[in-house]
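notes to self, project folder thing:

trying the whole complex as one job this time. last attempt i did each chain seperately and stitching them together was a nightmare. two parts in total, labels are on each line so i dont mix them up again. if this works i'll redo the older ones the same way
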Amino acid sequence: MTDTTLDNTVPAARTSPFPLKKAAALGALLLALLAAPIAIGDQFISHIFITIFIFAGLSTAWNIVGGYAGQLSLGHAIFYGIGAYAGVMLMNMGISPWLGMFAGAAVSVVVAVAISYPCFRLRGPFFSLATIAFLEVFRVLALHLREFTGGATGLMIPLKFGWEWMVFRDRTPALLIAFGLLVVALAVAWWIRSHRLGFYLVATRERQSAAQAAGVNTVKVRLIAVSASAALTAFIGTFHAMYLTFIEPAAMFSLTMSIQIAMFALIGGLGTVIGPLVGALFLVPLSELARGWLGAQALGLHGFVYGVVLVLVVLFMPNGLMGILSRYLGNATPQRGTQSASVAATPRAAERPPIGNDILIADHLDKHFAGLHVTNDVSFSLKEGEILGLIGPNGAGKTTVFNMLSGFLKPDSGSVKVRTEDGSWQAPLTPGDFAAIGVGRTFQIVQPFAAMTVEENIMVGAFHRYRDVNDAREAARETAFRMGLGPWLHAEARGLTIGGLKRLEVARVMAMKPRILLLDEVMAGINQTDVRRAIDLMLSIRDSGVSIIAIEHVMQAVMSLSDRVVVLNSGQIIAEGKPQNVVRDPHVIEAYLGKEFTHAQA
Amino acid sequence: MDTFLQVLASGLMLGALFAIVSIGLTLIFGIVKVVNFAHGEFLMIGMYLVYLITAKLGLHPLVTVVAVAPLLFLVGVATQRFIIQPLMSARDDHIQIFATVGLSTALINLALLIFGADIANTPPGGLRMPIQIGPVRVLLGQMIILLASAALVVGLRMFLQRTQTGRAIRAVAQNRAAAQLMGINVNRIYMLTFGIGAACVGFAAAMVAPLYPTSPTIGTYFVLTAFVVVVLGGLGSIGGAFAGAMIIGLIDSFAGFYIGSDLREVAVFGVFLLILILKPSGLFSERLNLSHVSP
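result (full assembly):
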């Protein structure tokens, strides 16, 4: 079972999180882990390995939420406890824990969704605090509902032995089941990490708004992750209850255990597939042995060592053991080189397609921020194949208009309508709707997914069109080369210069192949040569049939690119027309340079 | 009616206890923006110090504040300097949470190592004497906690509003980079704030120790409630923490009496979750800047 799941990895892709060699190494490691205790045949050794498998499994499941999605749950024992109680309670009613497992998982998924959905808007520590609070509530309720849970006295499982009941006199079958559960958890974690879902989760973790703009349904992907994680945790909880033969609220819904689960993942390597396994492999024997050797002599010594190790790991190896391993194995980050290489010269299409009919209409957009009237009755339209420049002095409301044109802000009144490919008109509401209908946007303040490589960043955009990782990767590479980002495909986005990040921003949205492109100051802060190349690039994008609205302060670009210009000042449109005419409009000059200047000129 | 008044009074006294423990936490949370899971353990250290000083030297517990608060100040400064500061620029705040969780685990077990699992009873020094106010009866020590926490709120507010250092602290809380550009030594301010936050706990310990038995895990009992109080009161709002603590104290007391003592925590955490989800800025937030909530 292991081999088939693991050998399916994509060998071609260099940055796939799980290339063939690594998969083979992991397979060998897992088999060795299973073979060792069976070969030794000692009860205590087997117990330690079962504990390793259980905690590695729990931690791997946690990592899907805490690592990939970046939602630092410290209440994961909720799902473990639900699995345990479901298993034991059903077994007392004569139902096999193999079925109880699924009952526990089903309840866990419902609970996980109900808990997480309202908590997703909480960031970092607040999400953690909320999960802790939920955990406490569950623990207290388990204590309180004595008739079901046995309260503080806990529950014993009836002594029925055999595979059917998941309870054995011998350790070996338990070892096999624990191992099987770990493999399932690893397989799910690996599958998620190497498919679209995993990219979406990491993108959401890194930059929620940029992920939304790339068409990611950020709530949905995180709910899927939480559900998968909760179900896996509950499976293991059921099994562990059978292994322990006795459960009680304090041990099942324990904060210490929740922290431990998270800690293994952190020490192993947050967000990596096998980090949690490595962490558990390293720490479980350490703590079991310490408990055995030190515990008797000095109460608390092993806990003290544990805590100190945790602090030291956080301080000196924040990427965990996996970080050290990969450095040791020479998976260093690819050389950066200079980043001044510019946008590749793009051959221009011989002829630009004619400007067509309206494709996007902003209809009487009104927006207030408290007392400030940010946009006041803004109406304009974008025609197919056109470049519309949106200019205006600082604070005119340009970016607010963009946020309304892409679903990030809802107008107080008025609406945005977009013509779909089949010619009908729709009024999308959320960023996801806008992305689905073919509206792509960039952000004025660049929003890279910092921990991802350039290629992966662009892939997040490409996934909008392709479900398959390889297709998305190919599309991303093509886009990267077109945007002059080819040499940095495998560099982490955080290492790019501002010019590189601006290009990455455009590349990501281009990979979505939008029909309408909203560019927010993509030329600000880049040098003259790059501006000229960016202008060429925008023209070639336009010639490929994309309609563009560009906010821009670089007048050179505005004048040479725009077919039409809309001028915004203090939330109102003060001029609209051909660029040459607009810049001579006295209202526009006044808005930019003040009344005195207009008088002086007159 | 008398029962009701007694429950009310107990709630207020409990609220005062939560307040005096939470004020330091809200300072650290609101200004250094670090979730200090080891806060409860600071209290535990303080209580053991009070215990040691009173038991060995025979001093009155309230007197120990002159030694315990400065010692805790140093503990706070050291924590900030050697654990939090190196992580200030860390990629995400997960890392800091784990660091303080690790510190908390280490401190609990260190106490276990030194003092054993048995509880240590600080000599009450007359603070457990009941006093009768009309129909209700409270302990002298509880009254002192109420007065002391009120004094702490007023004192800290004056410090933050009126002094140059206090202004610098508030400036750093609002915009770290801008404060740095104005010539404020941000790292020093963080150390100072963390130190003051910890010193507040030392101050609290001198009053809490005579009433509550000290044990290695006493901190975990308080820390979750303290977080509830801080979020309820609004991050970094000292007055808010005081009011939030009173509300939680009352909820705890009334839920314990009218619903069942084993469900008190459900009521407290239920309220916490509702606030977190429905009004994450807290009930009395002074600022609109909510870095912890997505738009």
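what i see at first glance: Confidence is low (pLDDT under 50) at residues 287-295 of chain B.
need to look closer tmrw
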